[in-house]
Amino acid sequence: MATVRTDTAERQHDTTAAPLGADAGFAADLEFRDVGFRAGGRAILSGIDLQVPAGQILCLLGPSGSGKSSLLRIASGIERQTEGRVLIGGRDVAGPDRFVPPEGRGVGLMFQDFALFPHMSLIDNVRYGLRSLPKGAQREVAVAALRRVGLERLGESFPHHLSGGEQQRVAMARALVPRPRVLLMDEPFSGLDSRLRDEMRSETVAILRETRATAMIVTHDAEEAMRLGDRIALLRDGRLVQCGSARELYRRPVDLFAASFFSEINVLPGSVKAGAVVGPLGRVADSPRSDGTEVTVGLRLEGVRVSPDEGSVRARVLSRQFVGRSDLLFLAVEGVDRPIRARIRPNDLPDGVHEVFVSVDPQEAFVFEGKSGSA
Ligand SMILES: Nc1ncnc2c1ncn2[C@@H]1O[C@H](COP(=O)(O)OP(=O)(O)OP(=O)(O)O)[C@@H](O)[C@H]1O
Fold it and tell me: What ipTM was estimated for this complex?
């Protein structure tokens, strides 16, 4: 169950300040140094070095089982790492000789089911994190927090009267009123339908920016990570694959896994000839590698250029599907076992054309060493 825990002993609340507003002095850096976690006889996390500067939003991204929630739990103190150190505000909260329990870390937690207390009104839910304040001040701060998320009028209602989006707003208010130094959110939007999810993502970013909170948000959705995070940390099998801005991860993925996490790709073999990588769809990109070097090419579906009359190689259209703003083509190309997938604008190719030419848009192609496509 999610609760909001705060280090009430260390900090005094300023009840006169806007609770989700002006006072921004509380955010702290969160840092993992060579963190490892073994459980059930196996390594869940290994060698995690990661920093979230104060006031930034970091998204932890990765497939199911990659260790995202474990890292979040380690940051909160619910779980204890077996190697390395965790620092908040530059001070150890967990390491070989020190372990600060969750309530002493000044972190706020928000989970995917929001975990509001069903028997408490919204006001009381939000007040829960403010127990160190005098009762009157608790109410005042909680009302102001609900006002900020647009739910002041529902203060006396109970959680089951609310829609998913409204519950998310209350959970957000409850997590932020105690002014946690770091806010940890585990898949906070996954229980919402897609339209509401979009709305709540924007609203959440707005509130986090406004409060200048440090936040670490777990998600398995690459687009969500790109929309939310100042930086994204991509995990695979308990290891950090790449950390950077959305643009860096999208434009300069370090390996085939990172490239395929951000968009669908065709994986093609290639080799270097006369200063260029050449594959079954022709020339891919310039290359400083020596002739004969074998490489793997990740080619986004948008990076397959398709034309009725010009291109590097011939292809046959096996099928064409209308998928909204683009058409998805499956193409047979000589020398390639599996169909090449291409995403084109409907006007780029007249209907009924089956024999086409294809070539590679180098902007949408990534070249990796060797046959496995690692960095
Ligand atoms: N205390 C534990 N004991 C044993 N195994 C654990 C423990 N904590 C986590 N695991 C295992 O570690 C792996 C990573 O789990 P974790 O929940 O961190 O992944 P995740 O990336 O958040 O996945 P998901 O997106 O599915 O929630 C899983 O296989 C999980 O079963």
Answer: 0.97
